[in-house]
From TrEMBL:
SUPFAM superfamilies: Periplasmic binding protein-like II (SSF53850)
Lineage top rank: taxon: Bacteria
Coiled coil: none
Alphabetical keyword list: Membrane, Transmembrane, Transmembrane helix
Source organism: Paucimonas lemoignei
Membrane spanning residue stretches: 12-37, 339-363
Transmembrane found in the keyword field: yes
Entry-linked InterPro entries: TRAP_TAXI
Protein name: TRAP-type uncharacterized transport system substrate-binding protein
Pfam families the UniProt entry points to: NMT1_3
Lineage, highest ranks first: Bacteria, Pseudomonadati, Pseudomonadota, Betaproteobacteria, Burkholderiales
């Protein structure tokens, strides 16, 4: 069997020798490009969410579940809220890669300076002001003297609420403000130890859902909601429709006008682009449905954010998922979309190489035969113009040399498709041998004639 494999129509050894350098060059270029482009995202991401029982916490869990299907582990870190999340993103030592940030928390120039990008607005976060008692209140100026909890400084609600009071020319000192977390503040409200709580959250938050259905707790209506949006551009006017909480119980009993900033998914600009794509796709999956304050597919969107939107996220919101993302697994679609330039370059390099390598392969195989023609030519030159006294010795030496060449040629392994060259070499060796033999016979025939004439 080993002998059979030696006589094939293809020489793997010669192919490796001829195509090997080109293949190594292409491989080196691919490895270098892969290292520079870095198509594979990291497998671990740190996300800053919100307080216990908050919408940020609930949505953070949903993002973690979706990205886990792609092999990406999201570490969720609790936070007081939007302002603290923004500080963590701005702090390079915090280890936070992505977080929920409320609109109006920063300015575009500051976000650009800090290297932050938005992956889109996710949902509205209405300002929910829940109050105890029967006194009808529909203006913030009527809250003077009441005990109102606005949450911790890191939530963003204190700053937002003070902006609303300022727009109404109300001094915050005219209210008794406290800074409890959402859950303890809700307990205090239900116990009657405070008069109201201020939240800014999606209606999905468990505490919001509970308070909307709690007897004795009223939600403050903003009849001037449209005016608020003109004075504070980061706010939008939303309406809590009558009966949306519970149709059977008709909760609420009438439409309630609210003002709302939007929750934005904010990341560091050096977050891997593939991860940005995954988060944007997850956002479309989580927030794309119809909600209390938005129609189907109204969110996520590139609007309602003062933070510059990442280029890949903006492309997604404009055109939707790419062709590759629609029909291929994430890892393959990501690899092809980020390596397409390299693939085209390698293809362009492979075209000329495909024309060069076959002739090189043919030359390499034939050179194993042709190199003996140089030795054969040396034998022919050795028998030219030999002085008569030395001819017999030289001819015998060259005949012996031809035997050695033939012996080595017989051990040359060559594909069957090139056997013609090998048999040609053998016939030429035999031709030179016959010539030397003829010269020897002719010399021996002349030698007696010279003696007789002498």
């Amino acid at each position: 069997m080993p002998k059979i494999f030696r006589f094939t129509r293809f020489s793997l050894r010669d192919l490796i020798v001829t195509a090997g350098p080109a293949s190594l060059l292409v491989l080196a270029l691919c490895i270098g490009a892969y290292w520079l482009i870095d198509p594979s995202p990291p497998k671990h991401v740190v996300m800053s969410t919100g307080q216990e029982n908050s919408a940020y916490e609930e949505f953070g869990k949903k993002y973690a579940a979706i990205l886990a299907r792609q092999g990406i582990a999201i570490e969720l870190r609790a936070s007081p809220g939007s302002q603290e999340n923004l500080k963590r993103l701005q702090d390079n030592d915090s280890g936070i890669d992505i977080a929920f940030v409320q609109s109006g928390s920063t300015e575009q120039s500051e976000a650009e300076r800090q290297g932050l990008v938005s992956l889109g607005s996710l949902f509205t976060e209405p300002v929910w002001i829940f109050l105890r008692g029967t006194k009808k209140i529909n203006e913030l100026g009527q809250l003077k003297g009441l005990r109102i909890n606005v949450g911790q400084d890191g939530t963003g609600v204190p700053q937002l609420f003070k902006s609303l009071l300022e727009a109404n020319h109300v001094d915050p000192a005219a209210l008794h403000l406290s800074t409890l977390d959402n859950t303890p503040a809700t307990v205090e409200l239900l116990a009657g130890r405070i008069d109201g709580v201020v939240f800014s959250s999606a209606p999905d938050a468990p505490l919001i859902q509970m308070l909307l259905q709690t007897p004795g707790i009223r939600l403050l209506d903003f009849p001037q909601a449209e005016a608020y949006t003109r004075r504070l551009p980061f706010l939008t006017h939303v309406v809590l429709p009558r009966g949306i909480v519970d149709l059977g119980k008709n909760l609420p009993a009438q439409d309630i006008h609210l003002i709302a900033p939007t929750a934005t998914l904010v990341a560091r600009e050096d977050l891997h682009p593939a991860l940005m794509d995954l988060f944007v796709q997850a956002a479309a999956n989580i927030h794309g449905g119809a909600g209390w304050f938005n129609a189907q597919k109204a969110f996520p969107t590139a609007n309602y954010t003062e933070i510059p939107v990442a280029r890949d996220a903006e492309r997604y919101y404009r055109n939707g998922p790419s062709f590759l993302e629609r029909y291929l697994p994430f890892w393959l679609a990501n690899f092809l979309s980020r390596m397409w330039v390299v693939i085209i370059a390698v293809g362009a390099l492979a075209v000329p190489l495909s024309r060069i390598i076959p002739p090189l392969y043919v030359w390499k195989v034939r050179s194993r035969v042709y190199r003996w023609y140089g030795t054969l030519r040396a034998v022919e030159q050795a028998i030219e113009d030999v002085p008569p006294p030395e001819r017999a010795t030289v001819y015998r030496e060259q005949l012996q040399r031809l035997d050695e060449i033939e012996e080595k040629a017989n051990h040359v392994s060559i594909p069957l498709s090139f056997a013609e060259e090998l048999y040609g070499l053998r016939s030429h060796i035999n031709l030179v041998r016959k010539r030397i033999q003829w010269l020897m016979e002719a010399g021996e025939a002349r030698e007696p004639a010279r003696d007789f004439n002498a």
